[in-house]
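We were asked to recover a plausible sequence for a given structure. The inputs and outputs are reproduced exactly as logged, with field labels preserved.

PROBLEM: sequence recovery
POSITIONS: 198
GIVEN STRUCTURE:
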């Protein structure tokens, strides 16, 4: 099983590498690192800007938190795509999940707006839209967590071999790579028979 420092090293070395596979341990160690880095950014913002403002409650700056988030966005996205590859799913599911969350946000916004508009059945429609958004978000989160927690495919898939960061060019089970040509007559002749020909 991959270690925490190794997972961080792989995350930064594959900063924008969206090919290959990442194991379950690599993904969750990287997620833990991102969480710890975010907390560190919040503490830096509160301590530095709160001290400068002289009022801890007025420290609403988020400079370091935003910088850390920007620095970890691409490698986090790449690790997520490679984790999906590890269970033989296309990385485009990250985009579909994002679009589903966006659609849920639109439904939620329209539903909340309908609470302030008065017409026949506006409350019922608003509740239905809000509940639809919540159900959509919950279903997406559950599916994503289940997929990200799935064990790795034990064999090679279309994205490469296990623990690979690049897809394999040829599969080990390809009959073309494993085919052995039958020995020719010249290769089976002994040295004595060759000497007799000359």
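RECOVERED SEQUENCE:
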């Amino acid at each position: 099983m991959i270690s925490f420092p190794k997972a961080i090293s792989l995350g930064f070395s594959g900063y924008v590498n969206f090919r290959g596979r990442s194991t379950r341990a690599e993904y969750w160690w990287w997620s833990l690192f991102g969480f710890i880095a975010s907390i560190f950014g919040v503490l830096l913002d509160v301590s530095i800007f709160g001290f400068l403002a002289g009022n801890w409650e007025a420290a609403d700056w988020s400079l370091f938190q935003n910088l850390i988030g920007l620095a970890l966005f691409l490698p986090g996205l790449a690790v997520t795509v490679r984790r999906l590859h590890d269970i033989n799913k296309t990385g485009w599911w990250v985009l579909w999940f994002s679009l589903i969350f966006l659609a849920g946000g639109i439904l939620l916004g329209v539903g909340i707006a309908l609470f302030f508009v008065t017409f026949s059945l506006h409350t019922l429609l608003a509740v239905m839209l809000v509940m639809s958004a919540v159900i959509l978000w919950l279903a997406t989160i559950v599916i994503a967590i289940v997929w990200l927690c799935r064990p790795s495919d034990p064999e090679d898939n279309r994205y490469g071999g296990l623990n690979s960061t690049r897809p394999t060019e040829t599969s080990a089970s390809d009959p073309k790579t494993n085919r052995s040509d039958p020995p020719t007559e010249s290769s089976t002749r002994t040295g004595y028979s060759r000497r007799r020909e000359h």
